[in-house]
Amino acid sequence: MKALTFRNLSKTYKNGVQALKGIDLDVEEGDFFALLGPNGAGKTTAIGIVTSLVNKTGGQVAIFGHDLDKELAASKACIGVVPQEVNFNQFETVTTILLNQAGFYGIPRSVARSRLEKYLTTLQLWDKRNAVSRTLSGGMKRRLMIARALMHEPRLVILDEPTAGVDIEVRRSMWTFMREINNAGTTIILTTHYLEEAENLCRHVAIIDRGRIIENDRMASVLRKLQTEVFVFNLHSPLGAVPELPGYRVSMPDDHTLEVEVSKQQSLNEIFSRLSSAGIEVLSMRNKSNRLEELFMRLVNQPTAAVGG
Amino acid sequence: MLLQVNTVGFKTIVLREFHRIVRIWAQTIVPPAITAALYFIIFGSLIGRRIGDMGGYTYIQYIAPGLIMMAVITNSYGNVVSSFFGAKFGKHVEELLVSPLPNWLIVAGYICGGVVRGLMVGAVVTIITLIFTRLQVYHFAVLLSAVLLSSVVFALAGMVNAIFAKNFDQISFIPTFVLTPLTYLGGVFYTILLLPQWAQSISHANPILYMVNAFRYGFLGVSDVNVGLAYTIMIGAAVVLYVFCVTLLNRGVGTRE
């Protein structure tokens, strides 16, 4: 079953900006789906339409088969959303925010209290349950919004940059938690600017740019499209000039570092043997950036890259 | 299932409003109590003695229902306008807008919250009134229904203001430049029979005149207007404003892009 379907979805704002230009998208039930794109690409508009905070201009949206126009309440009941910006009442306590949220979805207090304990404990917020929400740190506020989105145990959770501004340790624990709820059957749509996060967590990816979907496939298939990677070599001794490596594009950001672009057909062994014969000793090697980031930058910088929507 | 969602949702909105009123009691309950006490001291006890009787009652007895009603109206309006606009400003209105609760229920929940505050403040002002004068009840059902309907009407008016407001200036503009003058000119402090004919005619265009007089009729049995007409206006205004509020939310005016 499709968790989410867009058909010819479009949105034009009053100022004339066309945020979405008739996009089609399917997200399967149980998927962990990345919706990526540069700032202003249309991601948040698409999410806004799904959560009914933005009126669409045209097209259809269905959530688990419920048409958003005809079965609004049923559609809304399926969704939990973690927005980009903090949007809870900052004068209320953590407990009050979560109990109210459950109430808005018709969940009785007794059930809500047990869920509250479960999610606050899992998200390491239990000892903050009586704290006024504005006193929480940025990372805690993000986790509170995740707990809030889960209070009615939705079938589809939309996470709009959930780890923005949180430290590495918290981000990793949030990744573990997101995997757990996805493994339990919840469909997740993730937007993020941390492409490493999307690459690690998501099975499908759609890239949206200037209101159109320019890539939409399985993560593994998308990554296979990347034909070259850039490797960074840290050198033992400084170099006076860029060494000759025929067949490779080489640059030298500083005298202890070489950057070499390697295509899928080329071997790393050949590079090492050539560097060794030139008397260049390599201390360590790494990818310049993660593969998805590389592909993302190429796609969004192509003016004619549209392949869908 | 739908009934349970709506029932629990409605209770949650009303309880949240009640807790907000109690949490900020120094802003919601205390100021109208102090204002009412000052009115009774200055207009009732000090100046009122020199004015003499009005409508067959002492001046302080005559203005007491109007002062209670004034507190109810301003607080019902103020609660909804500040709470709903605050929710828009802080973006936590989105919690409700993304939920499966229908807009007619969201409006009803906020209006109920406004009525709760109006009645709480009205009760406090009534207690203060009893310190200064005796209150008689001429017709309890009229008294109760008039205060409830007035509270609903102004809670709805506050909702309309909050839906359209884009900044804090716009939520203080209507109370300052429209609500306060209408209240003071709505027969709280005088019978309009004292006014020249042209001023009486203008006063009849003021909806608050009907509310204050219906409420005064419930206490004292005297009114400057036809009580039946007052009910027609109050019920009509409540229905029109409720439908208007729900339509605005359905269209996303002030809440959706």
Continuous helix count of chain A: 10
The average pLDDT score of chain A comes to 90
Low-confidence runs of chain B: none
Main β-sheet, spatial strand arrangement of chain B: 1-2
- Sketch the major β-sheet of chain B: 2 strands, antiparallel
Fraction in helix of chain B: over 70%
Number of separate helices of chain B? 11
Overall morphology of chain A: globular
Radius of gyration of chain B, CA atoms, in whole angstroms: 19 Å
The count of β-strands of chain B is 2
Q: State the CATH superfamily name of the largest domain in chain A.
A: P-loop containing nucleotide triphosphate hydrolases
Q: Could you name the CATH class of the largest domain in chain A?
A: Alpha Beta
Q: Can you give keywords for this protein?
A:
heterodimer, A: 309 residues, alpha/beta, Rossmann fold, Alpha-Beta Plaits, 2 domains, six-stranded mixed beta sheet, four-stranded antiparallel beta sheet, 29% strand, globular, B: 257 residues, mainly alpha, two-stranded antiparallel ribbon, 2 strands, 79% helix, elongated
